Amino acid sequence: MELLQIAHLRDLLSHFRYFITLRSQEGHYHSLILFRLSSGQGLEHDNDVPEQGQQAAAHVTESLDNNRQIYVMESTCPHLGADLSHAEIEECETSVVAVCPWHRYDFDLKTGKSETGLRACTYAVEVRNDSEDGLEVVFMEAPDGGKNWRLIELRPVSEEFADPPPPVLMKKVSQSPLAEPREDEPLVPTHDAPTTLMQWAVLILNTPNPTLKVERTRHAVQLFRTGKLASIGHKSPNAPKPPDVPSREESFSRNTVDPAKVKNRKNRAVMLHALANIEQWAIDLAWDIMARFGPSHPDLPPAFFSDFTKMALDESKHFSLLTSRLAALSPSTPYGSMPVHASLWESATVTSQSLRSRLAIIHLVHEARGLDVNPGTIERFRKAGDMDTVKVMEVIHADEVTHVTSGHRWFTWVCTQEGQEVDPVEAFREEVQKGWRGDVKGPFNVEDREKAGLTPEFYENLKGEMRVVEKGTGNTETGHDDQNISILTDKMATITVEYDKRV
Hints:
With about 500 residues, the protein is α+β, with helices and mostly antiparallel strands.
């Protein structure tokens, strides 16, 4: 049996559940959930580790017992593809089972067997001592159907499964004094409350208040993961349509300017405000790709929606972390009080007719560029002695690697659906040439791009050839109609499709 190393056991003691994403040499993806049932509390600690770090460095003395308490299972239910990250765990007489939140199908965590006759893919787990440092290392059985499987994502499912649970899951977003009253806007609308994921997506896109947008995102994702929605809703003929441009508060729209007017302002408060603005648009982009392309692609599997709801939740977390740091650093300039731009949304408009184009431009150009510039941004905050923001940016950067990974995963999936002869590299370069303007610039973070699936042949010596669109001209030589772009530029400052000015 081929084994794949997951992590040191001590690094898995902070939470009970983890997302795992694997990629094979052939480019196949596999999404899994790691369940750890035994608590890391009360275990022996290394006396050489500072007191505040002892939990993370705990050593387990009974490897065999803990080996039986760690399980790895596919992340989706084999019945209808429900997300199993929030499955209930029940102990039976001779086994432990995960119960799917959608239809209560139960699956043995060790064998994958279900009383229904279905079977989930499970993978043997071993805990071995490292011969060099003596620490215990968790290995899992490598999947079939690929060679040289590689771990590309390992992170906690959520703070719900922290060990021990935190007293407060997440601070609320720092509310701008410019924010408009939301007394009449409850978390869940009192009339026509959403019952499907698509309905929640459109509601969130139409939510102008950023605090409420974050709260609704958390709520909707929780409903989706725990099986409390009627359905995803993308196959319904009555699926709601997303807006051309997400709603923004009037004060926010008044502050929207050309990117050139904000790109050279570099103090820390301005940088945090600019980054938070990007994350607010990123929340909308995650919901928009589901709402806009789900109904037109009924063959999209539930895993697509699991990946992008996870992305929406990440972007909400990033926005909250950044606005909290902004409030702490510069209370007189809360979020919404500085000029902002809408560069990301013109790319969303340009790619609004093609899922393949959307994945290429937003997730494999814009978000991949974030992987290139984030280390430099982190270093600026480090040099300024702002270690709290450094920690926030390190969390954001690690999450963004997984977002580019998801973009690559579903871009290659779309290419496969179009036919085996469609090469993802050639398809990506084609999309960039027609949906981007100017060079795909370096320097590149080759290591993190490669981890996310973007090898150099994707992006080296690549230039977009999309021309500037003038209103009323109908379309450009690239074939992009200007109608949707006109809608955007009527509502927002005039912008160009190029790299987002992160700082």
